[in-house]
Specification:
The protein has 518 residues and is an alpha+beta fold. The chain contains eight helices and 22 strands. The strands form five sheets. The protein has a six-stranded antiparallel beta barrel. α3 (94-150) packs parallel to α5 (177-212), α3 packs antiparallel against α6 and α5 (177-212) runs antiparallel to α6. The two termini are 54 Å apart.
Length: 518
């Protein structure tokens, strides 16, 4: 059903109902005969035309910026403009270009620091491996030296502790290594020296006998005597070396070997600890460098993003509409040179291919409105043209802004989506929407104009023949008719325009059914 036909049908139905049920009384006043029938329930509210979809161009830079250039308001952006990336807003970008340069330098320095820290860490790890390996070899060498000195068994037994009496180790049956070899050597040298001494003594005794018998010369005797003395000194020297080995050399060598082993182990522990410390320090330096690089990267990206945001290009087709400035702002209308804060809408790009009418329904009628109901819309700027639409949205809560402006009035935002649009239809135009909520059937109804409401909010109709008011109860209504739930009967004749009367004087008559003047 077209909008024009819809409107004509409503008008014709109302006219027929009025014409068929109304006539002039004897005094020339228009009357209406109460009938039982049906009529449509409509809700009529005024509102504004808006685009169903509007792409807002918002200033997203994290500071207030100045507009260098902006597309002229009223310009229609096309799909080709979107494809070409047409510039619609250009902000001042010099500060952002300088900031990008500075942060690019900081980024490169941070990147170089990360490379250096990574190389330093690799070098430190290699150095640590070498130091630990060298310290481990020193431990192995020290362990072998102790084993070489006293044998594996005693070396394992006293590798971490000092014996109570080192000298007694030479008497231990588990003794081995160089100490055992030296002990055997010294004992063998003493035995050999003793044997040589004994032989020298025997030779001297035999020579003495020969000398007494004059068989050898005195020189030979003295030579053999000198050899005896020499062997005695040799034996004494050998015993002295043995005693020194027992009392000093072995103890010194054992102390040295064990101390070297203990020191090498401590050195290994210190080397490992130092390696861990240096590795942690190098890793910390690398981590700090990477964090610095991450911050520098983020700041550089933010600066580049802000620089890119200084140029706003068309992303969707639509009509360019400047966002009106709030009343409390002293910045004036948006234009080149205006300063725009972050988050502020600069341009609205309504999509004119689909339009809606936004109205606010009073709380007394909101329950009669539902999504899916049909409506007809008239535009103040386009007289004679009717647009059909459908209710597509109804708020569940009252409009908070309207409630703040007038606490006594609660209205609900409602949207009507138009079936079709027009090239002349623009957002912001004033519109009137008539929503067909329902149709009531088999009810008594009278014209709305025939009902009089007094100061106590009571409703009356004026009986034409009896010339008296009658108290009535109203039901549902539309712009023309209202349902009568009590007070009147079918075929009662009432005045279309009831005369003025005092409800106080006629209240009793209205209740008792008496006529005026009786």
């Amino acid at each position: 059903m077209s909008g024009k036909f819809f409107k004509v049908c409503l008008a014709v139905a109302a006219a027929l109902a009025l014409n068929s049920c109304s006539k002039k009384d004897s005094e020339g006043g228009m009357t209406f005969s109460v009938r039982r029938s049906g009529f449509p329930i409509t809700v009529v509210e005024s509102g504004n035309v808006e685009a169903a979809v509007s792409n807002n161009i918002v200033q997203k830079i994290n500071k207030t910026v100045k507009i260098l250039s902006i597309v002229e308001e009223g310009t229609t952006l096309t799909e080709q403009d979107v494809a070409d990336g047409r510039i619609i807003v250009q902000f001042e970008s010099r500060d952002f270009e300088d900031l990008v340069y500075d942060r690019q330098t900081a980024f490169e320095n941070a990147d170089a620091s990360v490379v250096k820290a990574e190389e330093d860490l690799a070098i430190q790890l290699s150095t640590n491996e070498s130091s630990i390996r060298s310290a481990e070899l020193n431990v192995i060498y020290a362990e072998n030296d102790l084993k070489k000195l006293v044998g594996e068994e005693l070396a394992g037994l006293y590798a971490t502790k000092m014996p109570e009496d080192i000298g007694k180790l030479l008497e231990d049956k588990r003794l081995g290594g160089q100490a055992l070899l030296d002990l055997v050597t010294y004992k063998s040298d003493i035995e050999l020296a003793q044997i040589k001494l004994n032989r020298a003594v025997q030779t001297l005794e035999f020579t003495q006998k020969l000398y007494d018998k004059q068989f050898v010369s005195k020189n030979e005797l003295e030579t053999d005597a000198l050899d005896v003395e020499s062997q005695k000194k040799a034996l004494q020297t050998t015993k002295g070396k043995y005693e020194i080995f027992l009392a000093y050399d072995f103890i010194k060598d054992f102390y040295k070997a064990q101390s070297t082993l203990l020191e090498s182990r401590d050195t290994l522990d210190r080397t490992r600890a130092q390696a861990r410390s240096k590795q942690v320090s190098a890793e910390s330096t690398l981590r700090t460098a990477r964090q610095t690089l991450a911050r520098a990267t983020k700041r550089l990206e933010e600066s580049k993003a802000d620089l890119e945001l200084c140029t706003i290009r068309a992303t969707s087709p639509g009509l360019v509409v400047y966002e009106p400035q709030p009343q409390w702002s002293n910045s004036g209308p948006i234009q080149a040179g205006s300063e725009i804060r972050q988050g502020q809408v600069v341009i609205q790009l309504p999509d004119l291919s689909k339009m809606v009418v936004k109205v606010r329904i009073h709380e007394s009628q909101i329950d009669t409105v539902a999504v899916g109901q049909r409506a007809q819309v008239t535009i103040d700027a386009m007289p004679g043209q009717v647009f059909m639409g459908t209710v597509t949205r109804k708020s569940f809560l009252p409009d908070s802004q309207r409630r703040w402006m007038n606490e006594g009035v609660k209205v609900y935002a409602t949207e009507i989506t138009l079936d079709e649009t027009s090239d002349n239809l623009r957002p912001g135009m004033n519109a009137t929407a008539e929503i067909v909520a329902e149709r009531v059937e088999d009810v008594l109804y009278v014209p709305c104009q025939s009902v009089y409401t007094d100061e106590k909010e009571r409703h009356f109709c004026y009986l034409a023949e009896e010339k008296r008011p009658v108290l009535v109860t109203l039901g549902r209504r539309n712009r023309i008719f209202v349902e009568i739930t009590s007070g009147l009967s079918e075929n009662d004749v009432i005045l279309m325009n009831p005369p003025e009367f005092s409800t106080e004087k006629n209240e009793e008559k209205a209740e008792n059914g008496e006529a005026d003047g009786e």
